[in-house]
Write a structure and sequence with these properties.
elongated, Structural Genomics Hypothetical 15.5 Kd Protein In mrcA-pckA Intergenic Region, Chain A, alpha/beta, five-stranded parallel β-sheet, 44% helix, Rossmann fold, 418 residues, five-stranded mixed β-sheet, 14 strands, 3 domains, Tyrosyl-Transfer RNA Synthetase, single chain
Length: 418
């Protein structure tokens, strides 16, 4: 297939929402962009990953990249998309968060040239009067008060906004001006919930430098099943940090993607081209129960974030949990991951299934365990059982997989006493 231009690719992937330039083909002449990262946490989430995939696309189309971590702005707190005031964090906590975000950015852009900067470096010695004269004087209060994220906080029913958070967009505007002067940045990327803040730098640079620079936002990725911002599971946020969300949990989050959303996720979160995604969706529509599209999605995103080896381990555990692989194929490393990911217990060849269901947390009581068994809701190694005791034949190399229902998390590893 003919290679798409950047503007064509971003349009096809649905990654263009708000922009300050009229013609999207402006993107097809590579220049320098920047993307800022909030450091209110020490890890990015799955929802954040979308804009970093967009940044990777610009970089691959020849744009120079400046990645900013908000060591200064995170001390204030971004009001965008928030209904209430953020709690201030200490400098030490923000420093730790900055280190965590830097590590993830370096991973996501491994093998690519880019600049990594921290806005604390240029704000730490700036005087308040200097900031008001150089920056504050350039902004109209009328314009600032009309921005959606501020108007919603100070209007009827709003929770109010502090002067610190109100000033946040001026600080972000200064960031853009600084990066224009130091790195010739002329485009800022961000999610659509950041659009108000992103608009701060464009007029500032116009007034200070008599130069037109631009901003580009992408739509927020929405979970169509819930209508909410994408990136959370039943158990909470899906983190890129493997100590917060393990590679196996991360992989399983993607493989659980809804059928009506998986094509959108493939476009946003992978670098598969149109031909590959069209083929995947053709197979998916012919046999959705095979979850071919979801499997490829999980493979691609997990490989990018955690690497090939962790992706393969996560894939193997998931295949075991879904019955696509047999416990006889599970090596010591895979079993060790399974013990970490789900309940595990020991029993005998004639141990009680009822007790195992209760002690693993798959059932809240003996009564519920017996009800699950009677209702054909329990499987041993993917085979439905109604009996209340294990048998020697259930164990494969001293192990079996006990499950309630169909969800990955509703399973336990049962091992024979040594």
């Amino acid at each position: 297939m003919n290679k798409m231009t950047l503007s064509e690719e971003l349009t096809w992937r649905g990654q263009i929402k708000d922009k300050t330039f009229k013609d999207v083909t402006w993107l097809d002449q590579p220049k320098t962009f920047y993307l800022g990262s909030d450091c209110s946490s020490d890890s990015l989430q799955a929802g954040n990953l979308a804009i970093y995939m967009m940044a990777r696309r610009l970089r691959k189309h020849g744009w120079k990249a400046v990645m900013l971590v908000g060591g200064a702005t995170s001390l204030i707190g971004d009001p965008g998309g928030k209904d209430e005031e953020r709690q201030l964090k200490s400098r030490e906590e923000i420093q730790a968060n900055v280190a965590g975000i830097k590590k993830q950015i370096n991973c996501l852009f491994s093998g690519m040239d880019f600049e990594l900067v921290d806005n604390y470096d240029w704000f730490k010695d700036m005087g308040y009067l200097e900031f008001l004269r150089n920056v504050g004087k350039q902004y109209s209060m009328t314009e600032l008060l009309q921005r959606d994220f501020i108007a919603s906080r100070i209007g009827d029913g709003g929770s109010g906004i502090s002067y610190a958070e109100f000033s946040y967009s001026l600080i972000q505007g200064y960031d853009y001006w600084h990066l224009y002067k130091k790195h010739d940045v002329c485009l800022q990327l961000g999610g659509s919930d950041q659009w108000g803040n992103m608009l701060s730098g464009v007029p500032l640079i116009r007034k200070k430098e008599n130069v037109e620079v631009h901003a580009l936002s992408m739509p927020l990725v929405i979970n169509k099943a819930t209508g909410k911002k994408f990136g959370k599971s039943e158990d909470g946020a899906i983190w890129l940090d493997p100590t917060k969300t393990s590679p196996t949990q991360f992989y399983q989050f993607w493989i659980n993607a809804e059928d009506d959303s998986v094509e959108d996720y493939l476009k946003v979160y992978t670098e598969l081209d149109k031909e590959d995604i069209d083929k995947l969706m053709h197979h998916h529509k012919e046999a959705p129960q095979m979850r071919t599209a979801q499997t490829r999605l999980a493979q691609e995103v997990t490989k990018l974030v955690h690497g090939q080896e962790d992706m393969k381990r996560a894939e193997k555990v998931t295949e075991l949990l879904t019955g696509k692989a047999h416990l006889s194929d599970a090596g010591a490393a895979t079993l060790a991951i399974m013990r970490q990911e789900q309940p595990s217990l020991v029993t005998t060849t004639t141990g009680s299934v009822v007790e195992a269901l209760v002690s693993s947390g798959l059932a809240s009581s003996n009564t519920e365990a017996r009800r699950l068994l009677a209702g054909n809701a329990v499987t041993i190694n993917s085979v439905k059982v109604t009996r209340e005791a294990f048998e020697a034949a259930d164990f494969v190399n001293g192990h079996l997989l006990l499950r309630k229902g169909k969800k990955f998390k509703d399973s336990a590893l049962v091992e024979l006493k040594s």
